[in-house]
Amino acid sequence: MSLRPVHTAFRHHLALDGLWEWQPRPGEAWRPIAVPASWNDQFATGRDHLGPVQYRTSFPTPPRRRPDDRVTLRFDSAVHSASVRVNGTHVGGHVGGHLPFTIDVTDALTGDAGEANRLEVEVDGNLSRDTVPPGGSMTWSVPTHPSVSFDFFPYSGLNRPVHLATAPAGGIEAVRAVATAAGSLSVEVDHGRPGAVVQLSVRDADGGTRTTSGESHRAELSVDGVVPWSTDTPALYGVGVELVEDGEVVDCYRLDVGFRDIAVEGNRLLLNGEPLWLKGFGRHEDLPISGRGLNLAACVKDMDLLRWCGANSFRTTHYPYAEETLDLADRLGVLVISETPAVGLNWGDGEEHEAARLAACRQQTAELIARDRNHPSVIMWSLANEPHSAHQEARSEPFFAELYRLARSLDHTRPVTHVAEEGRVDAAHDHADVLCLNRYGGWYSHNGRLADALVDLRTNLEQIHQARPDVPVILTEFGADTVAGNHDAEAAMWSEEFQAAMIEGYLEVCESLDFVVGAHVWNMCDFAVAQSFLRPTGMNLKGVFTRDRRPKLAARVLRARWLGT
Ligand code: ADA
User: Fold this and answer.
1) Is 284's C-beta closer than 6 angstroms to any atom of ligand 1?
2) Are 420 and 437 in contact (CB under 8 A)?
3) Probe residue for ligand 1, chosen from 502, 532, 540, 544 as the CB with the greatest number of ligand atoms within 8 Å
4) What average pLDDT values come out for the chain (565 residues) when binned by 10 residues?
């Protein structure tokens, strides 16, 4: 797995952000390109080209604390697959966008510190029936261009930073921290130093530092008077993880932890023993020009708008978001359902393809949990969004049974779920700790007839609850496409009034049912999609904010309802 780079006395890293060079096709001219960012909207033409493309840049051999320190490149995200060469030598690659991978490049470096090294990366945004998400057109038979199986634009490229890092040979390779509301902290460490032991230090509430020494791969301590992490008090504590060999510290890693408990009890979701009600959104990492590229200012803005609405949570629909977004959520006390890139899953196209997709889902589930597990804001894992599983239960149930087993074997501290399509709960949901349902009555059905849709919603939710009385429900998506500025005295579809009325109606139903523990509006902001007859101007307009983050009427309605202002 791919440990996030940090700066300590033993570890240094440098983000290779900036102007790289980029070649869309063999033989075409190289041109400057910004990294991190998607390539699709950086040029006048070529938006729908999904690669493979070539990136190139150079980086200096970094100074090393010890001559045997290792030098790595950590790619925070390359969508969808990447193959990496340093000084002409293939050094590694990765399949799967939105999750990091690290390549040891030590042996491919030229000369001494400061010497330039050539870095060449081939990135391919194309998907297939063996990838997750799967390639091909949307299963609900809406042909799109580019052809995709999901409802967002397939922005591709080096969407997040690429880090040049140094670390001790055989040093810390993974850190798994569990910090409870009672103040206990246990840390497991993977490393390559037989005979070394793990030592922990944590700065406690009054600034004192507590330390303890542990065993070869784990250590634990407790902090008296800890302030539990919560939405109101997102208290973070700096933890130092040291590797001690023959009495000498040989490596040190640092991370922030939040001491908190998350649990499902009956049909309640509990944070530190207190019932939670999730108010928030499905979102997208989506901006003009930079596409799905990391934009820290936009991360800050979106988190502030989310809290301006009085929301307390979001789901990383439909792929893992940048770690910087989770840092913000940790610091601001926003709750996150972290979702894998498994959107558009289907079955029935042959065991070989299904097996390939299961392997990809296993890999991405493991990578997601390894990457996000130490963030207190992450309270739940979503293994997929809207798999087309209801009509293929004989194949989809064992598929998900394996993914749930894997997720729980990797992290026993968080509930696990996956999101049902149009409220169609099927056998795979028998494994879920929380039932997450998307519903669009009033929009895709009962068109414009909101009162009928709300009756149907209530009936459907109560039926689902009767069949699964001890499982809490989150309505993870509901909403309506809305043209900003389009008003209608009778709240016709596509008007701001219809969107606001639909959202209010859904919230009233959800808040009236004691087994519902949250509601996430789809979507927080308008976002780009692949071209189709379904989406005017290539946009999904279900945002309560426009793509340039201007509030529609629904945003103000949410603020009044969730914040009381
Ligand atoms: C689905 C899907 C979303 C979006 C939404 C819509 O629920 O999960 O990604 O496509 O429908 O806008 O129709």
Assistant:
1) no
2) yes
3) 540
4) 94 97 98 98 97 98 96 98 98 98 97 93 97 80 89 98 98 98 97 96 80 92 94 97 96 98 97 98 98 98 98 98 98 98 94 97 98 98 95 94 98 98 90 98 96 98 96 98 98 98 98 98 98 95 98 98 91
